[in-house]
Amino acid sequence: MAQYEKNSLSIAATVAMGTGVMVGAGIFALTGQVAELAGAWFPLAFLLAAGVSGLSAYSYIVVSRKYPSAGGIAMILSKAYGPSAVAAGAAMLMAFSMVINESLVARTFGTYTLQLVGLPPTSVWVPVLALGVILLGFGINLAGNEAIGTISKVAAVLKVGGIVVFAAAALWAAGFDFQAATGPDASGSGPAGVLAATALGILAYKGFTTITNSGAEVRDPHRNVGRAIIISLLVCAAVYLLVAFAVGSSLTIPQIVEARDYSLAEASRPAFGDAGVTFTVVIAIIATVSGLLASFFAVSRMLAMLTDMRLIPHRHFGMPGGIQQHTLVYTVVVAGTLAVLFDLSRIAAIGAIFYLIMDVIVHWGVLRHLRHDVGARPPILVAAIIADLVALGAFIVLRGTQDPVIIIGAIAAVAVIFALEALYLRRRRPTSDVPSS
Hints:
Blueprint: H1 11-38, H2 42-66, H3 73-81, H4 85-113, H5 125-141, H6 145-173, H7 190-205, H8 208-213, H9 221-250, H10 253-258, H11 263-308, H12 323-341, H13 344-374, H14 378-402, H15 404-427
C-alpha cells in the first residue's frame, strides 16, 4: 500500500469514492430497513436524510476547505478540542462507524449473492461470503491509490447506470402505481417511524465523509473537497429517491419487510422474473465491492492519522510495513468479525448511533471553537445539531422498544470508547508537538 499521495485523486475519482460508499450501503442494505420503520413514507425518510446530511456536510466542508487533511474528521476534531479524550473518542466513533459500514456492505454482498442460487438470507454462506469479499477488498487496497481510483470510477458508472435502469424499468412495468401505499401495514410506525428511519437514511449518506478523510490526497483540495461532497450527495439523493419509488411500485410494505435484506432483487422479480433478479444481484455485487474498496481506503488512513497524532495506541504485532498497512489489517479484522457475528439490522443500528453522536460532537466543536477561524455560520451549525439529535432520539426510542439489547450495547460501547481514550491519554506523557494535518 502506498503512503499518503498528495494530488493523487482527481475530482472524478473522489466523487466516485464518495458515491461508492453511499450507494453500496444505502441502496442495497438499508432500503428494506428504512421501509420497515417508515412504512409507505420511506421515500420521505430518504429525502429528509439527504437534507440532514446536507446540513451536516457544512461543518466538514468549511473546515476541510481551510485545512485539507488525509485525516479529515480526526483533524477537525483535533483542531476543535485539542489532543483530548473528546477528540480521540469522537474520532474513534467515526472510525468504528466506518468499519461497521464495511461489515454492513459485506453482509449485503452475501445476501444478494445467495439470490443467484436460491439460498435464504439466513444461510451460513452469508457470513462466509461477507468475509471473502472483505479479504478481496483488503488485497485490492494493497495495490494503492491508482488501482482503487480506477476501480471506483468504473464501478460507479456501472452501478449507478444499472440502478437507474432497474428503477426506470420497475416503475414502467408497475405503471407508476405505488404499491407500498396499499395494505394494512402501509403506515409503518407513524411520524416517529419516519424520524427513526431518517437516522438510518443518514447512515446511508455518510459516505461523503470518505471524501473528507482523503482531503490531502485530492487535487486542489481547498476547492474540490467541497465540490466532491456536494456532487456526491446530490447524485445519491437522486438515486435513492428513484430506487425508493421503484421498490415501492413493485412491492407492498409487508413484502419489502419480508425481503428487507435483499429488497431490490425482490422488487425486480414481479416484472422481470429471474432475469431481473440476476441483473439486480450483479449490480449489487459491483456496488458492494466498490463500496468496500472506498471505505477501506479511507478508514485505514484515518486510523493512521490518529496514530500519528498520538490519540490512539499502536502495535505492529510483528507485521512488516508502515502504519497504514497495519491499520488496514486492523480494519479488515474488525469488519470481518462484525460481519460474521451480527445481522444487517443490528449492524445498521450500531453504525447509526455511533455516527450521529460523532456528528453532533463535530458540529458543536466547530460552533464552539472554530467558527471564527473557518468562517462558519452558527445558524447552520445549530440546525445540524438539532436535526441529528431529533433523528437519533427517535431512533433510540423506537429501536429500544424493539431490540433494547443492541441499543444498550451501543450506548455502553460509546461510554467504553471515551473512557479508554481518557485513560490512554492520561497515561501517555503529554506532548505539545501534536500534528494537526
